[in-house]
Amino acid sequence: MKLYIGNKNYSSWSMRPWVTLTDAGIRFDEVKVRFDAFTPESSFKRTMAAVAPTAKVPVLMDGQLVVWDTLAIAEYLAEYSARHAADLAVDQQSRGAQLWPEQTAHRARARSLCAEMHSGFGALRSHCPMNIEASLPDVGARVLAEQAGVRADLARLVAMWSACLDASGGPWLFGASFGIVDAYFAPVVMRLRTYALPLPVDLAAYVERVAARPSVAAWITAALAERDFLDFEEPYRKSRG
Hints:
Layout: E1 2-5, H1 12-24, E2 29-32, H2 43-49, E3 59-62, E4 65-68, H3 70-83, H4 85-95, H5 104-119, H6 122-127, H7 137-146, H8 148-168, H9 180-184, H10 186-194, H11 201-212, H12 214-226
Parallel strand pairs: 1-2
Antiparallel strand pairs: 1-3, 3-4
Helix pairs in contact: 1-3, 1-12, 10-11
């Protein structure tokens, strides 16, 4: 199995399946395609156009099968995990990984939350792009004051996570197992930390639990090691630091 990703510091979409694969103990080869630009003639676009019709990351390859879009990848990995449960059991038991909740109603709700993240939260994504290396609390305060859409997205996030943690008892959104839905919100956790957006105490604790999860922490470490400043991904800085 092979996963094509972009720069770990910036690529929120790439982070989701990488964390899911890593946390579930599914072996895969990582292929990082550096963001040089997103124009048709860029090296990134030419490389990815040869891999998938969208010419975007992430892309999962399993033999000759090509799966693109994070939701499709998530569902494929859930099916793969079920088919290979015996082989993955040791890793899953030691890490507490379970990709979707067992109960039908909980599974449907988890999928709904992932789909809502997939198609929504446009203001948060636009005004607070993922940038793991940066610390931009002043920007976060200004954006929150000026952008009603970001305030609405943050309020929805607080309501969503609070309802899940209250119902499940935590420590993860659907109980004892870190799953796809937690991995799906990992890039949001990165944004909340970078821009120091305010959260209730219990949700701030959830944010830190996600950041400390070994699979997420490994991504963060690799993102910090990239030291690759891309000005077109940086609306709020002209250089690192």
